[in-house]
# Entry
Amino acid sequence: MNLNHFIQRAVADFRQNLPMQLMTTVVVCLSILIFTFFSFIYYNLQRTVERFGSELGLVVFLKTDIQESKIPILHQKLLNLPGIENVKYVSSEEAFERLGTYFEDAKGLLEGVDQHFLPASFELRINRAIFNLERIHALAVELEKWNEVAQVQYGKSWVDRLSAFVAVGEKVIWVSAVLLLATAAFVVSNTIKLAIYARQEEVSIMRLVGATNGFIQGPFLLEALFQGLVGSLLSIGLVFLCYSYFKGIVAQTELMRGVELIFLPPSYVISIVASSVVFCVCWTFLAIRRFLLV
Amino acid sequence: MLRTMKGPIISLRGITKQYPPDIIALSDIDLSIEKGEFVFLTGPSGSGKSTLLKLLSCMERPTSGELSLDDFDLTNLSASQVPYVRRKVGVIFQDFKLITTKTVFENVALSLEVIGLSSEQISKRVRDILELMGLASKTDRYPPQLSGGEQQRVAIARAVVNRPSIILADEPTGNLDRGMTNEVMALVEELNAEGATVIFATHDESLFAHTYRRVLTIHEGRLRA
# Structure
């Protein structure tokens, strides 16, 4: 009995039991669809939070009595910190100029104001790849301990809220993911079991005419492989269609400006397809095994 | 386990089959059947005929005793050897046991597919046997589209297409009218004439009333001479 023969029998069986086969494939597809869609949302949420977090710059305000000679030393010291991509010095004059640009339509407001009343500062740009919200916070706390530093700003309250949201979100996401996976596994496994029960007599007749377990299992496992593969690919295709549709809408929404939807990376897609196939094949193997015990 | 010594093709020594908790289906059965013999097995319903055939086709295992079939010692047979025993035994059932989603051709071909014949060999042998059974024009029909007699002939074709050395017929004419019964009997006798050993279970006394063949009677799980 070679693979070609197995494939021929699997194709014939699939054709002969088409309604049941299609039902199983649709159930697999819907179960995986829920999980894939959920993964897609989670992935994008995670990426968006990471992106916003890493785009936060730090502004290190210096004390007003700092000596000019210390500026280059501090500049270098900040540049040497791990994860810092760029450090820009903003003198008090430059800060005043920026303020002037900001109040361009009401220049009179700044008339007579001392050009040195704003503190000099360093603007730090951090490496997105290695910085997360916790590390930004830790860095800010560390920098505030320096003698030359008056204050460090990085949108702390925003970061704190975002961190809290991410922490709660992660817990909710993991619990939901487990429940979703359990539901999908339950539905798919019972559908496979029902499909095999429906062909119980066929299996017993095959045994009676001298079929080995491998001969009986082969086509069933190939059919399960097909159901897992087609079901998962269909679900991923549907999520991709949703992604393509919503991508344009999100880009045009004022509220979501700056947020870019990203489709699941190939590693996710491969994992979902492989898990679906492995699950269907393993469960079919277990379900049919009970009819093969002598 | 393979046996190498010569002897009867079927041998039972002190075979007992008990179902839980304490239902004794067969009790201390001693029986020898020679190669090429045609044996009728009779007895009332529930007497143990089907249980005996189930033991011979490895659908059940004896509780105690020794049982051998062709070269196989069924008492100590491993699970992996069961399919190979079944290939030596063609079983015909009263309820046909055909796969309703497969065509007549596919049902019969199943017995040859399991032994790994090529598609060409399978096609030739299936068409030959269906021709012999008078079913050549019905190869693409599904079992529910056939009459009872035709379905039984398909079941017989499936049982004998791989040329088994033993044929076990469990009330094969139970659901058939007289004409169909005679037809099936003629087919089984023809297979026996070609060398197959046949055990034919029936409670239709008319089938063996005037026969010269051996008739075994089972009553309440015991074999009567």
